[in-house]
Amino acid sequence: MIFYPQERIAIFIDGANLYSAARGLGFDIDYKRLLDLFRSKGRLIRAFYYTALMEDQEYSPIRPLVDWLDYNGYTMVTKPTKEFTDTMGRRRIKGNMDIELAIDMLEMAQHIDHAILFSGDGDFRRLVEAVQRRGVRVSVVSTIRSSPPMASDDLRRQADSFVELQDLAPSIARAHAPRDDMARMRAEPVDNEE
Question: Which end of the chain lies in a sparser environment, N or C, as judged by fewer CB atoms within 10 Å?
Fold first, then answer.
C-alpha cells in the first residue's frame, strides 16, 4: 500500500467481515494500533466501523467494543439485527451493513484521496469502481490465507491495491495471545445474506 504524506485517508471497516478474517488467521485486532498505523501514513479524515447489534438482549457481548471504539476515534455505524425463521424452520439473525458502508464511502469520496476498505466482500466491487471514478484510490484489506479465503477475487482485482491482513498483523494485532472469549466470538459474525 502506497501512501503520500498529505493524502487524505478514510477507513471503512466491515466489522463482521474483519472479525471473521482476523479470527481465521488466529489473531485479535488492536483497534488503537490500527488507528495509529493509518494516522502515521497520512491525514486520517475518518475511521468508520460498521456492525449490527442485537438490541433485544439484556447484555450484548459486542457492546463494550462498540462503546470503546465510539470514544476512541471511530465513527460508529450500527443498526439492530433482524431475527427471522428460514425455510428450514431455523432461527436466523440478519444484520447486513453493506448499504450503510456504500453510502458513506460515496459521500466521503469528494473529501478523501485514499479509501481503505477492511472487507473481502465481493458485493463491494461496484462500490470500489464508483469511488475510483471519482478519483479516489481504494485499498482493500482482507485475507486469502484463511480457509476459506475471505477476499473475493473480483474485489481484489478492482482495488488499486490489495493488502493481506496477515501482513498487517505485526502492526495491528493485540500484543497478547487471542483470548478464549466465546461470547465475543458469537457476537460479531452475523448472517449477511439478504
Answer: C
